[in-house]
């Protein structure tokens, strides 16, 4: 039986020419389809994460970071579509204990250095870095039923004052500020004694203090300036002068047991970078270099 080329050679000239043109057309179309496939596979790379496996990062973060971190996570997801987030917001001391007990996490962001140092010394985290700072303020309900118009008013007998527990970073910082005031001639030790005698509750996290003041369950409370900013007019702010204030430092780190260490480090880098820092400042945090 003749070969295919031999069979084609038997065809009339016009038919042989059409067959050659058809073969060339098929070859050209095949090459174009191959190039298109290569181009589309290459275009799915970059920072979009469209071709990367889906990852959910479990982020343990101080309660005061809730609004800022949720915003940052949304921005990060837009640039890295494969990365989603699951947050655990609580007091830093609670989060550190959860990590020590083996709770699965990828990133830890604390509102103080002490709890991060505990996690670091226990070998739970890698290379902690300070990414933000915060300042203390006194807040009162917008209706101000306690008539608190100055720091001195916090010592009024019968005032309902709320504060975080001393094991909570915000509670620890507030007490340090009150100690500074007690050593000053402006306030003195009796001021601190009277103020602390007005404490009606000691909360597990600073967000709980904010909520009680918003609801009018307390006449005043000590929180971060970021908490006051998030209240959107539900509270009034009484500043604590810089000479008495305590600036909180917030460190962040990748958890060593993370199953997604590369993606976790990418998120940490974003928080430390210009976009993350700009978002933190939007929520009234002080930038890491501020």
Shape: elongated
Rg over CA atoms, rounded to whole Å, is: 31 Å
Order of helices and strands: HHEHEHEHEEEHHEHEHEEHHE
Q: Determine and state the CATH class of the largest domain.
A: Alpha Beta
What is the distance, rounded to the nearest whole angstrom, between the alpha carbons of the first and last residues?
A: 87 Å
Describe this entry's structure for a reader.
- The chain has 290 residues and is α/β, with parallel strands linked by helices.
- Helix content is 44%, strand content 22%.
- It has two domains: 116 residues, Periplasmic binding protein-like II (D-Maltodextrin-Binding Protein, domain 2); 104 residues, D-Maltodextrin-Binding Protein, domain 2, CATH 3.40.190.10.
- The strands form two sheets. The chain has a six-stranded mixed sheet with strand order 2-1-3-10-4-11.
- Helix 3 runs antiparallel to helix 11, helix 4 runs parallel beside helix 5 and helix 6 runs antiparallel to helix 7.
- 36% of the residues are buried.
């Amino acid at each position: 039986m003749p070969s295919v080329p031999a069979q084609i050679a038997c065809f009339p000239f016009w038919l042989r020419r059409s067959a050659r043109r058809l073969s060339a057309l098929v070859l050209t179309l095949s090459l174009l389809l191959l190039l298109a496939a290569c181009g589309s596979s290459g275009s799915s790379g970059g920072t979009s994460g469209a071709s990367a496996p889906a990852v959910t990062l479990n982020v343990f973060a101080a309660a005061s970071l809730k609004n800022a971190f949720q915003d940052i996570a949304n921005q990060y997801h837009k640039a890295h579509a494969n990365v989603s987030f699951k947050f655990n917001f609580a007091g830093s001391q609670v989060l550190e204990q959860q990590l020590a007990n083996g709770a699965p996490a990828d990133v830890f962001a604390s509102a103080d250095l002490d709890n991060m140092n505990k996690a670091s010394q226990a070998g739970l985290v890698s290379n902690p870095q300070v990414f933000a700072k915060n300042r203390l303020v006194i807040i009162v309900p917008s209706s101000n039923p306690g008539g608190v118009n100055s720091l001195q008013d916090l010592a009024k007998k019968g005032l309902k004052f709320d504060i975080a527990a001393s094991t909570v970073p915000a509670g620890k910082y507030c007490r340090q500020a009150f100690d500074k005031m007690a050593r000053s001639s402006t306030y003195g030790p009796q001021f601190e004694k009277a103020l602390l005698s007005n404490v009606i509750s000691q909360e597990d996290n600073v967000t709980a203090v904010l909520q009680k003041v918003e609801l009018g369950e307390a006449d005043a409370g000590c929180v971060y300036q970021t908490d006051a900013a998030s209240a959107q007019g539900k509270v009034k702010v009484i500043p604590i002068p810089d000479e008495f204030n305590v600036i909180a430092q917030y460190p962040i780190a990748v958890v060593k047991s993370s199953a997604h260490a590369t993606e976790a480090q990418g998120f940490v880098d974003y928080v430390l970078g210009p976009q993350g820092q700009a978002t933190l400042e939007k929520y009234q945090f002080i930038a890491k270099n501020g």
